[in-house]
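Person: I keep going back and forth on a fold encoding question. Show me how you would write down a chain together with its backbone fold. Please set it down just below, with no commentary around it:
Helper:
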Amino acid sequence: MVKVDVEQLTVRALGPETWDAFAALAERHNGVWGGCWCTYFHTMHNQKTFEADSNRELKHRLVMEGRAHAALVFDGELAVCWLEYGPPVELPNINHRKEYETGMDRPPDYRLTCFFTDRNYRRQGVSAVALRGALELIAQAGGGVVEAYPQDTEGKKITASFLYNGTRSLFEQAGFTYLRPKGKNHCVMSRTVTAE
């Protein structure tokens, strides 16, 4: 465990210039969740290869084409966390789709789909830094309605590695409003971000 001063962390957008730092973080964790490389929400089930090398290639291509977005949290020059975000067309896959669409009024402008924090930086507020950074990047891009699908832990302590969507309390602290449940332990939350 690395002792973190969250005030010293910085956030940069995922892009060609930060790809190497993102890739190093993923590689330190075996491609993340069995080699996902944070591609799960980019593709539908029938499009997936479930192979780490092809997922890495897909993520790299999407980043180079400007079709994969994330807020990357840095400790100095070391990427230690990301929060993936993007419009629904960029992140079409969503868990519990039928239930989600039944309660949907209109699609959001952005989805916040996946956090990942380096195992040595967990449970120290790094995800909150990533969330603030993602909202700032969305504001710089014009803002809009932002949805998140966090786990509703109901105050129970959950292993951090399973909280890839974040927690309801994290999003409440960031000004998100609870909309409805989604799946067994998740919910839909929303916030409107004003353009900068």
Observations:
- The two ends are 36 Å apart (CA to CA).
- Residues 106 and 145 are 10 Å apart (CA to CA).
- The chain has a mean pLDDT of 92.
- The helical segments are 19-28, 52-64, 97-102, 126-140, 168-173.
